[in-house]
Write a structure and sequence with these properties.
The chain is an alpha/beta fold and 280 residues long. The protein is built from 8 helices and 14 strands. The strands form 3 sheets. The chain has a 9-stranded mixed sheet with strand order 7-4-8-3-9-2-14-11-12, with helices on both faces. Strand 5 (95-98) and strand 6 (101-104) form a beta hairpin.
Length: 280
């Protein structure tokens, strides 16, 4: 087994296990998610700013017992030419250790996927070393679902054809394991001036709640391609429920112009999606 140690502790989240356990303590579910497969949306930033948003999304999974957790993360760098035509990446390591706690990847499934979707998906560790989103999310997975195997995937920019292939891969995963929880790490917009941030954040929210595509001109979310692939893979099986809207660690009733503080903003949403007879 190839174990990799965390790279982004102290920068994005505390290295101390006791503090991490306190920040990620399990909360009771409200009952919005009742069966699998289901999905949650979580943001990525310094954990001190997004702990409440992360906790709300993960709390909705507290009564679920997934065998597999598929983490869909963004790739904040260009795919290197030597790795093309792949646009989707899985780790080469078999586990990751954060603050002394280890999580094993679904290595057998990763091998299967890279064999069956060789031109689309490849194993490349360097992207996971550079990208902090997985490490930010993993302590919550460790708290809520310590027994689940985890399949981390990172996606960069995708063409429409690549999004369809991405959806095919997600459909293949669901057929392999119905008891799957998808965790999508995505912010509502890129770092933009307040007025643009509001427009882009609202466009993202509208697409999320209407189950529409995420490819509109005012949607700048760093992981919109993963969300669109998941939308195609799941169809209209359940709708997204918005659980909270945050900016700079402060909760707002809705996205609105912000005139105080820094000139540029990123909106953070928390949401869940799954079959349920309850809807907000």
């Amino acid at each position: 087994m190839t174990m990799r140690d965390s790279c982004h502790h102290t920068i994005f989240y505390p290295e101390d296990r006791k503090t991490l356990d306190q920040w990620t303590a399990v909360r009771p579910a409200s009952g919005l998610l009742r069966m699998l497969p289901s999905s949650i949306l979580v943001p990525h930033a310094s954990l001190s700013l997004i702990t409440e948003a992360m906790s709300r999304s993960f709390a909705e999974t507290a009564s679920l017992h997934p065998e597999l957790i598929v983490f869909l993360g963004p790739l904040h760098q260009e795919v290197l030419t030597i790795h093309e035509p792949a646009f989707l990446f899985a780790p080469e390591s078999s586990a990751l250790r954060i603050a002394g706690k280890e999580t094993r990847w679904a290595s057998t499934l990763i091998t299967d996927l890279t064999k069956n979707f060789a031109t689309a998906l490849m194993q490349e560790e360097s992207y996971f070393v550079e990208e902090p989103a997985l490490e930010l999310t993993l302590p919550f997975i460790q708290s809520y679902h310590p027994q689940a195997k985890v399949l981390p995937l990172l996606a960069g920019s995708c063409t429409s054809g690549q999004i369809r292939k991405y959806a095919d891969i997600l459909e293949y995963i669901i057929k392999h394991e119905q008891s799957t929880l998808f965790v999508v790490s995505a912010n509502a917009n890129a770092l933009l001036p307040s007025v643009q941030a509001e427009e882009h954040g609202q466009a993202f929210t509208d697409a999320l709640l209407s189950n529409a595509n995420f490819l509109g001109p005012k949607i700048s979310s760093c992981n919109r391609f993963s969300l669109d692939a998941l939308r195609l893979a799941l169809g209209r099986k359940g709708s997204w429920n918005l659980l909270g809207t945050f900016c700079q660690g402060r909760e707002y009733p809705a996205i609105e112009p912000i005139t105080e503080g820094t000139e540029k903003h990123v909106w953070h949403l928390c949401a869940c999606q799954g079959a349920s007879d309850v809807k907000r």
